[in-house]
């Protein structure tokens, strides 16, 4: 009797998988980079050697080519092809690509998470209620950034070593944004601040699970990482409950004030007030309050973690360059004397050297591939003649675009802190090469608030402390596949001597 061993079954399975998943490329599609490892394709180089791999691909195949990663063909675009993706948002969808990485549509059970439709509402909220209220909120941001600095760093008469730098500054940023989003009444509660601060880290932990099962089908990966939800575990639900418990009494208090004061009621400037004024708001219905809280959490996810990341990258870039720190201190000192320590939007706009430094730090984020999109139309033909079909994932060759010599000169690879001084090119300005905030009409609407808060926090840090890397060197970022996270090295803080 013939017996089939497990090894034989495995071999047969792999042969079938290879036949099914073998890339099929049309005549007019971008050039496909050959690979030597069956089934795995380019996955190893994508994960462990991305910078060299993408550079070599670009040199050989140009600004538009396709690779085979985790069982799927992905098209990498740069330069003109990249800007076309931003210009044609009806053909390319960012939301579906993000939901593949993190299944927001499963995690956010009341508002549907992040979709092309809900993004319109979230973008409008960020543009009008966050970035649009910078002048109103600058004092509140300033107040709580200072409180956060005092709490998390404090007095440094003797040099203080700060470990877990990203987490430390994430907590500082979380304190200020909690007050802007939930209001000062709710933000007195430590559990709410902690929830806001840890939310993106908790949800983002799902990104650390490699999509091995995507070699078979991408849905299998989604099913596996969301399987714990069937048993009651959901990284969103715990945070949602904390937020609801802290906001409900504030909502009741405000509604009572409205009833008593009528037309004399003075609206609050926080996001909670904005959600309360939505036509469909009714906190007495549990699902309704959950819906609005999840809308709030979407903006929490998009803001705190990314802003603290910008701050920390800038800190490391600055801490290893003492001569630049001294020059920025001179600018900060001049501005501080003019406003007597109370910064307004006008003073923030005067921080030209600091703004340039932040933009250069963002330009050197060193992410190789970023901002994935899915092609959702029947087909799309780039101006270079290449055509991709519906369902193709497109990845932006971010580092190549941000360091293009035709845009930034022959020294584009260098870190020049004051590159943009007198260039009329602030850190919030979007152009074809500066894509850290996306591009086109869907560029990040919260970037104005994020850059303002980053400048405020760095200004206060520069005024109060001298800081350096523990090693005394410029620390490099850590690569996780084609994206980066901040260095894990310690920073050393010391009080400035008062003149």
From TrEMBL:
Which residues hold heme? 444
The alphabetical list of record keywords is: Heme, Iron, Membrane, Metal-binding, Monooxygenase, Oxidoreductase, Transmembrane, Transmembrane helix
Under Pfam families, the record lists: p450 (PF00067)
Bilayer-crossing regions: none
Q: Which cofactor does it need?
A: heme
Q: What does UniProt give as GO cellular component?
A: membrane
Query: Which PROSITE patterns does the entry link to?
Result: CYTOCHROME_P450
Q: Where in the cell is it found?
A: Membrane
Q: What InterPro entries does its record include? A: Cyt_P450, Cyt_P450_CS, Cyt_P450_E_grp-IV, Cyt_P450_sf
Q: Which GO terms describe its molecular function?
A: heme binding; iron ion binding; monooxygenase activity; oxidoreductase activity, acting on paired donors, with incorporation or reduction of molecular oxygen
What does the similarity note say?
A: Belongs to the cytochrome P450 family.
Protein name per its UniProtKB record: Cytochrome P450
Q: Which organism is it from?
A: Rhizophagus irregularis
């Amino acid at each position: 009797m013939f017996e089939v061993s497990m090894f034989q079954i495995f071999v047969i399975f792999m042969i079938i998988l290879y036949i099914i998943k073998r890339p099929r490329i049309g005549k007019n599609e971008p050039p496909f980079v050959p690979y030597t490892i069956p089934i795995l394709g380019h996955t190893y180089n994508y994960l462990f050697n991305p910078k060299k791999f993408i550079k070599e691909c670009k040199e050989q195949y140009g600004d538009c080519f396709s690779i085979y990663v985790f069982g799927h063909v992905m098209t990498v675009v740069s330069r003109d092809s990249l800007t076309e993706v931003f210009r044609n948002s009806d053909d390319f969808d960012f939301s579906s690509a993000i939901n593949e990485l993190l299944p927001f549509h499963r995690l956010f059970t009341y508002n549907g998470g992040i979709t092309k439709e809900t993004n319109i509402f979230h973008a409008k909220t960020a543009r009008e209620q966050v970035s649009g209220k910078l002048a109103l909120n600058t004092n509140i941001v300033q107040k709580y950034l200072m409180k956060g600095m005092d709490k998390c760093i404090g007095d440094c008469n003797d040099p203080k070593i700060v470990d877990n730098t990203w987490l430390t500054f994430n907590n500082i940023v979380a304190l200020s944004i909690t007050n802007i989003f939930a209001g000062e009444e709710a933000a007195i509660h430590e559990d709410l601040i902690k929830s806001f601060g840890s939310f993106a880290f908790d949800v983002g932990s799902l990104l650390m699970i490699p999509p091995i099962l995507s070699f078979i089908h991408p849905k299998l990966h989604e099913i596996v990482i969301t399987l714990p939800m069937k048993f009651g575990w959901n990284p969103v639900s715990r945070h949602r409950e904390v937020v609801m418990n802290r906001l409900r009494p504030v909502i009741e208090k405000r509604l009572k004030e409205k009833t008593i004061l009528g037309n004399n009621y003075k609206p609050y400037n926080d996001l909670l007030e904005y959600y309360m004024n939505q036509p469909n708001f009714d906190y007495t219905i549990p699902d309704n309050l959950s819906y609005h809280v999840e809308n709030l959490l979407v903006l929490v996810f998009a803001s705190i973690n990314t802003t603290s990341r910008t701050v920390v990258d800038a800190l490391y870039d600055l801490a290893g360059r003492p001569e630049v720190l001294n020059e920025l201190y001179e600018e900060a000192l001049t501005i501080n004397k003019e406003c007597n320590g109370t910064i307004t939007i006008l003073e923030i706009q005067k921080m030209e050297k600091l703004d340039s430094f932040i933009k250069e730090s963002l330009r050197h984020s060193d992410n190789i591939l970023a901002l994935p999109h899915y092609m959702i139309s029947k087909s799309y033909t780039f101006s270079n003649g290449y055509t991709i079909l519906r369902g193709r994932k497109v990845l932006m060759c971010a580092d190549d675009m941000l360091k293009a010599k035709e845009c930034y000169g022959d020294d584009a690879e260098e870190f020049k802190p004051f590159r943009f001084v007198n260039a009329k090119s602030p850190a919030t300005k979007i152009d074809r090469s500066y894509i850290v905030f996306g591009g086109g009409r869907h560029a990040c609407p919260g970037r104005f608030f994020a850059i303002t808060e980053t400048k405020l926090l760095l200004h206060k840090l520069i005024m109060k402390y001298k800081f350096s890397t523990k090693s005394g060197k410029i620390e490099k970022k850590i690569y996780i596949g084609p994206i980066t996270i901040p260095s894990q090295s310690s920073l050393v803080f010391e009080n400035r001597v008062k003149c």
